[in-house]
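Lab notebook, page 48
Experiment: co-folding of the full assembly
Goal: obtain a model of how the components sit together before planning crosslinking
Operator: M.T.
Materials (sequences as entered):
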Amino acid sequence: MLNKAITDLLTKMADDELILGHRNSEWTGLGPVMEEDIAFSSMAQDKIGHSWALFRILEELPEGRQADLNAFCRPEAAFKCCHLVEYPNSGYDFSLMRHFLFDQAEAVRYESLQESSFEPLQQLSKKVKGELKYHTLHANAWILQLSRAGEESYDRMQTALNEIMALAAGIFEPARDYEQALIDEKVYPGEKELYNRWLDRIYPVLVKASLNLPDLNAIAPAYGGRTGQHTPYLGPLLKEMGEVFNLDTAANW
Amino acid sequence: MTQEITIENIYNSLQQVMDPEIPVLSVVELGMITDVVLTAGGAEVHMIPTFAACPAVTYLQRNIRQRLEEDLHIPVTVIVDKHIAWNSNRISEAAKVKLEQFGIAPPKRLAGEVSEELFVEVPCPHCGSTDTYLRAPFGSTLCRAIHFCKSCGQIFEQFKPLE
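Observation: model returned without errors.
Model output:
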């Protein structure tokens, strides 16, 4: 039971990192300024590295599957990423707001995992937490700068926040069958607790940026991703991401 | 002449294995080696990457193995150590001087967590001025940030402090 619960947790975390890493990499060569092009490319590299580390932990679990096969050879319905990471990059406002909300959520999650009873995750979390500092530093700085850069810029950041909030709340979809077991066994504090910590974390930054948090009672979190129900955007992304790997899945790189 | 197989000689050989992204620093100077163990007829080298997604890890593992096998003629296993996480305080003081001479500002020493403070007034490795600002926390490799020196008008890179 616990093994299945941990597999579920690791898989959803790895899938979020892999898919958002892929989306971030789509900014390579297209960033609005050179430094931002480099930033999104670097964050893509970090995210895919973190997903690789999680897939490696999965690989070492009983009946674990080889990391590359897990990443590239699963059917869409076996992916457990949230809808937020699946959406196309759209404009820079959307991408940046997603980056801010997602990376703050990751920071809260990995901080909580410092206390995890599951040793491999506890060890990895120390490493990832330090690296994520740069992602949140980058995100906070740009949320502030763009929200203070005139009316059009401010409006676009507020609109992006309004549009993304329900998707971002979907990060914290509880695991249907495993949530309580993971909390009881002190693997992690549970999605509800992480959601509250996340709100405490993003609120002060939004206040500094004079952005208004949408009414949380009025939004319906975009759930479904954790149980394999995805947006139409995931399928084409998976196809593209696995295109080279699937030419010859046994090839040695 | 074949060298004697001692921990010291193994470290001496490891001093010759350079980081591919910063060719003036060895894996030892960067603090990437966590342990060296002599085994029956061979040796085990335990190492850690600077960043989790460091693309050079496999390359470094191979270079370490080749170097030691060439110098000491023993089979070597290189193991990635999961119990220790790399942080920028692991870079030796001597290595920080080399880094600066190479044109990369070394990371300020960490006391506790990484904060914005570590990115202000970073001394420019070209002219020494501290009239500098952080231009972007990401650079040409995962371990570097980009700064600008107002005094000499040059862009420079800093090896990032990492917890």
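Interpretation: The longest helix of chain A spans residues 119-147.
Next step: discuss with group before ordering constructs.
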